[in-house]
Amino acid sequence: MGLNFQNPYDKSYQKIYERLIIVLIKIFELKNMFNLYYKPPMAKNIKQSSWKTIILELIETILESLNKRKRTWHQHVVPFEDDWAVRREGNKRITSKHRKQSTAINKAKIIAKRKKADVIIHRADGTIRERINYD
Fold first, then answer.
1. Is 41 helix (H, G, I), strand (E, B) or coil?
2. What are the extents of the domains in the chain?
3. 83-88 and 128-133 as β-strands: parallel, antiparallel, unpaired?
4. pLDDT band at residue 1 using 50, 70 and 90 as cut-offs
5. Radius of gyration of the chain (CA)
6. Which carries the bigger pLDDT value, residue 106 or residue 90?
7. Residue 110 scores a pLDDT above 80
8. pLDDT at residue number 31
9. What DSSP assignment string belongs to 55-103?
10. Is-contact 85 101, C-beta < 8 A?
11. If both were cysteines, with which of 57, 90, 95, 121 could 86 make a disulfide (CB 3.0 to 4.6 Å apart)?
12. How many CB atoms are located within 10 Å of the residue 92 CB?
């Protein structure tokens, strides 16, 4: 089971994963205790998956769905060559190029308002200066 936590929210997913493991251990303990006292009748010709397999598949499915986030429309105002550019979050290509940061910010605001997203304004050194939310 390849668990790969590589996005900014990895720590929260890691905590969810750890708590899920604790719950599953408790389930296994209860299941084992239950099986000591009760043996259900087995139907013929039915392939039975172990509890461990079923629960591991469930964990993997949950974690995969958590990692598949909907793509955002957040607009970044970033330094580009000697000018400023608007770039959608996650894109390599720029959306538009501007001589002044203020015009790039205005363009990013228009897009973000339409898409109900954020504008993330960067400084010339690339660090984040401000974040404006339009949800």
1. coil
2. 10-67, 75-133
3. unpaired
4. very low
5. 24
6. 106
7. yes
8. 65
9. HHHHHHHHHHHHH-PPPP--EEEEEETTEEEEEETT-SS-SEEESSHHH
10. no
11. 95
12. 6
